[in-house]
């Protein structure tokens, strides 16, 4: 528990945890809906688009 509290002192770790939880909630809600409507390939495509968007934002953030 002490190790976890040590990591949570860093702001980027807290931001990463918050963003990770929000992405997990949004993708799980959207993913279940798409699978139930038999649009599972759309969910797969959305995950690839999200990964590409994160890569582009990371590259742009490195240069700005």
Which properties best describe this structure?
single chain, 64 residues, mainly alpha
Briefly characterize the structure:
This protein is mainly α and 64 residues long.
Strand content: under 5%
**Major pleated sheet:** none
- CA-based shape: flat
Low-confidence stretches: none
Number of strands: 0
Q: How many domains make up the 3D coordinates?
A: 1
- Helical residues, percent: over 70%
Radius of gyration, Cα only, in angstroms?
16 Å
N/C terminus separation: 36 Å
Structural classification = mainly alpha
What does it look like?
This protein is mainly alpha-helical and 64 residues long. It has one domain (2-63). The protein is 88% helix and 0% strand. It has helices at 2-7, 11-36, 40-63. The model has no long low-confidence stretch (mean pLDDT 83).
Helix and strand topology:
Blueprint: H1 2-7, H2 11-36, H3 40-63
């Amino acid at each position: 528990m002490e190790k976890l509290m040590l990591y949570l002192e860093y702001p980027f770790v807290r931001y990463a945890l918050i963003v990770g939880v929000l992405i997990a909630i949004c993708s799980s809600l959207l993913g279940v809906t798409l699978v139930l409507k038999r649009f599972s390939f759309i969910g797969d495509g959305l995950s690839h688009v999200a990964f590409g968007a994160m890569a582009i934002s990371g590259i742009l953030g490195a240069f700005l």
